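Model: You mentioned two targets. I'll fold them one after the other.
Researcher: Yes, keep them separate.
Model: Target one:
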Amino acid sequence: MKITDTKVLLIVLPYYEQIFNKSTVKAVVSKGIILLGLATVAAPLRKQGIKVKIIDLNLEMNPESILNKELKEFSPDYIGISITTPLFELAKFYAKIIKSQLKDVILIAGGPHPTVLPEDFLKETDFDIVVRGEGDETISEIVRGVKLEDIKGVSYKMNGKFFSNSKRELVSQLDNLDLPALDLYEIERYVHPRFMARRNPVASIETSRGCFGRCSFCNKSIFEAKYRMKSPERVIEEMQYTLSLGFREIHIIDDLFTGELNRAKTICEMIIRRGIDLTWYPRGGLRVDRLDKELFALMKKSGCYRIPLGIESGNQQVLDKMNKMTTLDQARRAVHMAKDAGLEVEGYFMLGLPGETDKTIKDTLNFSLSLDLDYAKYAITVPLPGTPLFEEWDNAGYIKTHDWTKYNFAVSARELYNHPTVSWQLIEKYYRLAPRKFYWRPEFIARRFLKSIRTGTLWDDVKTAIKVKWF
């Protein structure tokens, strides 16, 4: 077969119901979020003349019928799906559907979960190949027909046996990557509610990969801890390309956008200097120890409107135990600087971290209330496979199940593990209490009301408040 006759279908699984079905915030979470990884691996395939399509089943009312129609009409030779831990069963289900229609299609899995557990994943599903870690070069080699035994970074099954090749080196020069094939998505469908975006449609981009942090709950199995950056010039090129496609807002999904402060400042300065009209938001979150006043002023001027901070806990001992390498004073200072710059500030907090007690969870709630935050998100700790926390608690017998559907940040993890130091009754009590305490304070409501009047977002705020399950 000629390479130009080869067809590749990349699929976004219909994860919305799986993840958010029982979540209190389901009604205000957008289904239309660009999965950048698929556009990233699609670009080099298309450059080689390979026919590539992306279908986002998450946007469809009847995802199975849409998939069946696509399989019949496009008849791909290869299908690629990116899979996180809670989507394991969903991926397994859709793999069966695919293989029942196209028994000879090569099913390729990527993403955090198959990267961490490739052998188990292949044994339990109908997938043929796992791409471990970054797939930019690996998938191209697979589709070009390079022998599997000669491809680094793959695990596969053949004749009933499991094989796992040596690790592929990380991409060192991110500037050399092709611009992601975002045009393969139906751009006009990626619309977020006002709570999540200022303009629509919204695209995701990356400006760096990796993170030098060592948080015990974090899974870096794809990009690892090695921090690599795109140059400011490449980032600006990617932003302008993204806007030229019809997107009007950009969400940066880096683990560590501000890992190198001068680079982040230069990106903002270039946006300002070139007069690029966009709104943007560093959705991946920022470390509170990698920020300063000058950066916030430049971010605001360049179109950024909100800063999400990974604060996690309001107790210093808990932060130290999880190896966060930040302090409460740094968090306070970061919030203060961002507010001074005129930015909205969002705080991320976790309940049920290692070493928690009734007091430390109260400390987290009280600390979140003491900060001048516009939004606060509280999640229950989930020890994901591949993290130090999972290994520690699994070895100690605290993990109760490997039913991966239960590894979901959007709901209680009571069925997932026994916490070594606090009860589930206590964790769930604060999980329910925290958002009510934060959002229903009279001073917060008054401040939010005045702001929504000033910005013309009162009706959006009211609709959002009505949709959330507060009690």
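Model: Target two:
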Amino acid sequence: MSVTVKDIASKLGISVSTVSRVLNDKAEKYRISTKTKKLVLQTAEELNYRPNFLARGLRLKKTKTIGLIIPDISNPFFAHVTRMIQLAIYKSGYSLIVCNTDENIDIEVEEIELLRSKGVDGFIILPVGTEYNHIEKLIQDKIPLVLLDRCFDELQTNAVIVDNYLGAYNAVQHLIENGHKRIAIIQGLPNTYTNNERVTGYKMALKDNKIPIDENLIVGNDFRKENGYIETKFLLNIDNPPSAIFTTSDLITLGALKAIFEEGIRIPEEISLVAFDEIEFAPFLIAPLSVVSQPKDLMGEIAVKILIDDIHGKTNEEKQRIVLKPKLIVRQSVSTINRTDNIRAISKINK
């Protein structure tokens, strides 16, 4: 059975309030002697006393706990961001409860309600991104909240995002500058903020270079590895295959790489590849992968700072939207071709 404040008081023959004040670091305020303070702390340690944070939270209406909602813990990007948030949260003196929604909006709604029932002090949410009514309810109830990675233009709330449009534009522009015209994109979950921005950046780069947009080269339906694998298989075997592929997440890239290797196709000699997100092993492939790198560490740290400030009432009524810049890292996964060439088509003919 857990040791209580009353047990410590009974053992020492002093009042419960005195013990409570010492354990809550208020001995000096209530002029409790150094001797008594030392006795209380020593006895608490001997009895292996552990404070009841739930009871304290109910009393103070603060639990010192943050709820983190993420869409896919198996995704290396989300796993890394979660780790950075965890480190920053602990440094701030809070605990973290992590919920994985598996990119399912119904699970997201349920997990938010679960965390609300546990009385978390605030939320960091990386939403699925297809609906926002349940998130709007948090805003209406004035619960501290930061949206991370994916957001909604319709919601007035704190958000930390990356300039996905710019990252995609620069990736496709790099391919075009190396002579590529038939550029495919494997997108993530359609009609989400992140995906829409990346697809728009892709299209605008083509448009600015007067390259017609071929809707047959815009494929994919989620951010998972299977999506990258299946769509790459199809792209590599169509009659007029692309000379380059732009993948929009690290898991999609993993699937694409698997399909490319199974087909016996060489990067970059037969197919060029640029990925959004920096896969950990990208620099160590036979053809080190060119990527759009996101500032993952900063994203988590900034989100935590904004949330903690909001919880402590240090922010203004006006919410913050922090937009971070991605960086195109050029390595060796893009070949330079003549504008009239189609290396993949030549390769298929020779097989």
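Researcher: Noted. Anything on target two?
Model: The domain at 164-294+329-350 is CATH 3.40.50.2300 (Rossmann fold).
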